[in-house]
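Key result, reporting period 2: structure in, sequence out.
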């Protein structure tokens, strides 16, 4: 069965509400524990410093948010799934329900914004990146960690052959909502590669876009800067 990716935002939110209680465990099972390493590397790339304000979008249960805040930055977990946020209340980080296309924050509110394994669920990637740029201060940074395209051809071949089946099977084992993981597998298989995502980020007005491949490119971290005021067009 192939999952339809043509979903309304409320349908995606409801899907994540349904898997919230076991989502973190299922992610670790499906990635063989690599998700922890990827998040740790993302935190290093973000480099959140004491006194900074960081917006963690599509934060889910706040796993990443808690990690980013460990250095003293004020980090806010934002997600459009109330179920995810409720299941992360024990992490004691500030949380807010928010849609990435219509963020409830004033202009230039944050020093940095980050998204880990959630940007591919936005209904309009470029529009979301434009909206994120609105709430990040000039000179502030964007860090996106997301599945990507393996660079070595043999690994890319195997990845494309097994990703949907393996993710779906593991989702059935580790989750109460197998359909949700079929959807996630399909979204992974159709997601843009490293360069294509970099071009989308640049087209949304971000500058100095670069990426770092993790685990042969199975995952990539993209980093960018919001143009300073004196360089804005």
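The corresponding designed sequence is given below.
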């Amino acid at each position: 069965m192939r999952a339809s990716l043509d979903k309304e935002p409320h349908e995606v939110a409801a899907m994540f509400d349904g898997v919230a209680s076991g989502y973190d465990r299922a992610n670790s099972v499906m990635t063989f524990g690599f998700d922890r390493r990827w998040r740790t590397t993302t935190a290093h790339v973000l480099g959140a410093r004491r006194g900074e304000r960081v917006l963690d979008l599509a934060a889910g249960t706040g796993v990443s948010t808690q990690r980013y805040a460990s250095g003293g930055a004020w980090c806010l977990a934002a997600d459009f799934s109330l179920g995810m946020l409720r299941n992360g209340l024990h992490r004691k980080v500030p949380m807010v329900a928010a849609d990435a296309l219509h963020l409830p924050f004033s202009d230039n509110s944050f020093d940095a914004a980050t998204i880990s394994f959630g940007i591919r669920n936005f209904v309009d990637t470029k529009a979301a990146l434009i909206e994120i740029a609105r709430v990040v201060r000039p000179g502030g940074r964007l860090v996106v960690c997301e599945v990507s395209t393996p660079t070595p051809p043999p690994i890319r071949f195997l990845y494309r052959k097994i990703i949907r089946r393996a993710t779906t099977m593991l989702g059935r084992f580790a989750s109460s909502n197998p359909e949700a993981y079929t959807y996630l597998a399909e979204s992974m298989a159709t997601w843009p590669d490293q360069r294509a995502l970099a071009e989308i980020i640049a087209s949304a007005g971000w500058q100095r876009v670069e990426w770092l491949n993790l685990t042969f490119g199975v995952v990539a971290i993209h980093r960018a800067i919001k143009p300073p005021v004196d360089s804005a067009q």
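The chain is about 40% helix and 20% strand. The longest strand covers residues 136-147. This case is discussed further under Risks and Mitigation.
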